[in-house]
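Q: I'm writing up a methods section and want to include an example of the input and output format. Could you take the sequence below and give the corresponding predicted structure tokens, formatted cleanly so I can copy it straight into the document?
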Amino acid sequence: MDLRGVPNDMIQAFSGVACVLIGPLIQYLYNFLAHRKILFGPIARIAVAFFFCGGAMAYAAGVQDLIYATGPCYDRPRACPASENGKLPNDINVWVQIPVYFILAVGEIFGFVTASEYAYSKAPPNMKTIVQAFVQLTACAGSALGMALSPVAKDPDLLVMYACLAGVMVLSAALFYWKFSKYDKVDEELNQMNVQDEDDRASREDNSRC
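A: Here is the clean output for your methods example:
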């Protein structure tokens, strides 16, 4: 892609910028739905996160298709004689990939933040740290999966890879919601059980001091 003088690192930095900008908007959405008593529980949020991540991969596939449809090297960027020994990229402005970072930011807020909150609130008081560690371990698993996919992350296979990822994410969203949506209906009950457990633990500690 044509950077037009923009450093590669600057484009990737928009992921954090997107989270900062979109975070308050999503919090407003939560408040809006709660005020109108519209159920949008943690399981639904995580399922929506899968859909957003799938949408981001679908958009990335579209951008990749656009790259492969543009010269000078089409589906072999910087690998044809017309690229002047790899100096000339395909004539696509790098800024067209910015929406990917914003869509992924929405997915991250809906998914990873919600998963951390859900795991902490539902874990037994004496296991909250361990459960949170396992939640963070999922990020490690994601990075490992990215490394496993790196051999196929090359031209001209990028379009197929992004399209497959989009399909897998949408399928995962549907399966996840189908399997776990029942927990949104009893979320408040689970929270009350956790509060009761904490109260009982505090009472036992007070009695032991006496």
